[in-house]
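Components:
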Amino acid sequence: MRGFFRNRYLQNSADDIRHFMRNPGLMAVTAVLLVLILIFIVYPIGSVLIKSFSVSYPTVTLRYETSVAASADVDRLVTHPLLGVLKNLQGLESARATGKSGSFAIHLRFQRDWDDLKGLNDTKRSISAIQGQVDPHVRKFTYRLGKESVNSIASYRDFFSNSYYYRALRNSIVLALVSTALVTFFAFCFAYLGLKGPDFLKGALRVMGLIPLIAPPFIFALALILIGGRMGIFTKLLHLPFNIYGWPGVITAQVITFLPLGYLMIENVLRSLGTNLEDAASDMRASDVDILFKITIPLAAPGILKAGLLVFLMSIADFGNPMLIGGGVSFLATDAYFLWMSENNLEMAAVFCVFLVLPSMIMFMIHEYILKGRVYTTIGGKPQQSEKRRMSPKIFYPMLAIVTPLSIMIVLCFGMIFIGAFTKILMVDNSFTLEHFQSSNGFYSLVTSLKFAFSAALIAPIIGVTLSYILVRKRIPFKRILEFTALLGFAVPGTVMGVGYIIAFNAPPLKLTGTFIIMIINEAFRNLSVSLEAGSSKLHQIDVAIEEAAVDMGAGAFATFSQVVLPLISSALVAGFVYTFMVGMIAVSAVIFLITPGNNLASLYILAVAEEGFLGMACAISIMLIVVVAASLGTLKVISKYTKTEVF
Amino acid sequence: MTRTTKLLGIIFITISVFTWLMSAPVLAGKALKVYTNADVNEMEKWAPEAEKAIDMQIDWSPRMSSNELWSRVQAEAPNFQADMIWGFLNSHALIGTQRGWFIPYKSPVWQDIPANFKDPDGNWYGYNYWFSAVVVNTKLLADKKLPTPKSWMDLADPRYKGEIVMPNPGTSGTAFLSVSAIMQIFGEQKGWEFLEALDKNVAQYTKSGSAPSQMVAQGEFAIGISWDQAIYGRVEKGFPIEGIVPSEGTAFDLESVAILKGCKNIEGAQKLIDWLGSKDGQTFIGQFRSKVTRPGIPGKVSLDPNLIKYNALWAGENQKRIMSEWKKRFQK
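Structure:
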């Protein structure tokens, strides 16, 4: 049996390959896309993996020439005395002597985090101590600093043997699990109440559930600091003995930030369930509570799980919230950044990235390959005609009690940002001021963000939609692999792409770090998959017959694509553009590794000033950012509605 | 395709191309790219003034604390992304010179500035110096009935538990200066003992050396370790804070500038160095920093703080080792 399926798969592949080979245009385009994806997605991620398995030692190489003829004499007169005094050097790992016939070298390897300049100076000092003894025989000494990279799992060993490393992994996973549980819980209540509850609540709930979307992801951390930080209004007014930094702050910030994602997905699921089964159960005298727990939830379970997995992914990749309000608690994304920023320890940062990728990959695989298509929808042939039932008070009031505090919190957060932006220093000098809006650098960073997001948004849809056309309509071999790698850029946390780009593009032939271009490319390829999905969904709505008709009338493949298909799916291009633009404005976790003088982004600038305690300025720039994002989101909704394209 | 869609499409494309063109880097003359460890609010005033003096646009790095900056420079070597460094620790300037990362420049303007403030070959120049100090919020201390600390050792007093905010020596030059000063004052072993005791009192480690001043000024903590101007600048603004130089002495750092190898704008870099050493430049900087290096130009602070004989080279050579150890012990 197994052989049967395998042969079929291979046979199909063989057919695909044959068809592919006959079509040079298709081959060219696919080749270009493949190369781009390989370079800008696979190569960086691969480099991270390789880097995590390498360890580098600082080395000092001492070369010398001697006028002594016999090598045995050289050993006795020069090499051994040198080695004798060098092997006592501080921080030395190993010393090795090589060379012959006049030209020799001693290769000194120092401990991993030893300062190589200190090693060099210590070496010079040691040698000058026995200078007199070896001088007559040696013509000259030259020194060279170097780095030796060795393949080893030493970094992993370090990771597991030091608590300040592995606790980042533990904390990140715990955080993700807690956030996921809370977000799905709240999102379900919001969605259920909105869908089945009284009509007057519908609008309010929808707004509450979705409005966090317009705020850059770490804005709520900022707001929470204003509310519950050491100088927060609640902390001060209520004289609370604790503050919100650390776990409470990060969890709360994440729950608010990811609520819209959960809400959208769960509402979608609940809506498509239809009420048939629930009505039937009700007719059979089941109580509302029973219906909720025995029918609605089990039916919606796969969809809820799907939402949960996505929230898990986002939580583990979250950089801004732990950075602002984490209060020093170790998390994978932020620790990886500090490992690179303040210790220049790329190897350990790579290890952290591997541990960031693993849970994400697992979750993503489950999401894409197991849950896809398993979402239960009730598809009836006839339109459903049922009266909207009144929700039982036993469900209504508890849900209301759950939903209200969170809604108040959301409103409070937005309110605090506004207040903070217009107040000199909150709780210290509450006078009204516009000075926070006058930061020239803040404004400049906003302009840079606009340029950045705009450029990335131009590239991503073009590549994404072209790719979607090839994947949906054309026959190419190993489609799955191409699709998978394109989605990889999205599934992998931003930190990994950031570190990967630093490792991959820091040396010729592709030395691109420090340029504006590399930031744009990074952002574009990270968001390919959204344009891909938009294009795919739109293509599925279009009948193949239209393209076949074009071909029948003599249009070539390219003409068909550009004159027939492209206009029809243009809304996908636009949707991809707006989405990538929106995400680009609030990008943080990947680009923080790539910014350089003159290329500061608004989102990162907010983090920087907030960290220095200039909360008012942070709020002001945040408001400007919110305005831009809200405008883009509005545009996206209008396009979605107008052209019926699904982007989410 | 309907007419409306076509029209929309054309408008969209036109706007896109137009914006794209407008956003292309069109510079009237080249920009000078600098890395700096100066505070954001300092650079926002310094850069425009400097731009006027050298008649060139200055692109300055998003704010990096001293060790972050140095880490970045080390990572990029020898292909630096910036033209020069305007403001970094002297320890690092010494190390960079040894590694041959700078382009030497003998500035004529600097001739009459004392030799101990500049590299003999012109690899780096020190244009002002600052020292680390303790900042306290007098109001908070009074409210909590705590005595004012007067020395480093005082900070280890368990009475101050949870009241101290200090920068992280891993990222901040201020903190690293303080830590290496402590090592040099007390010797390494006693130094580590002191740091252990201090750590128990520290509520939070911040990334930058200035943040503690802001936080103590805002009343979030009673005591902070920071640097002189961050403190005195806020005293001037009217915050209820006071700067204290510990009785055992404190270390000072010579804020340095250097031109990085591979600099694409030598002319601009040299002009900036000239300006920073000139009477005008020094007077301007003197409005912001405690002490400038040109004789006769006053800085903001006229008192002579108790400065130890700080060995910057030792600090630079041992930084990695000490930081590793610090992380092992105190990284939460």
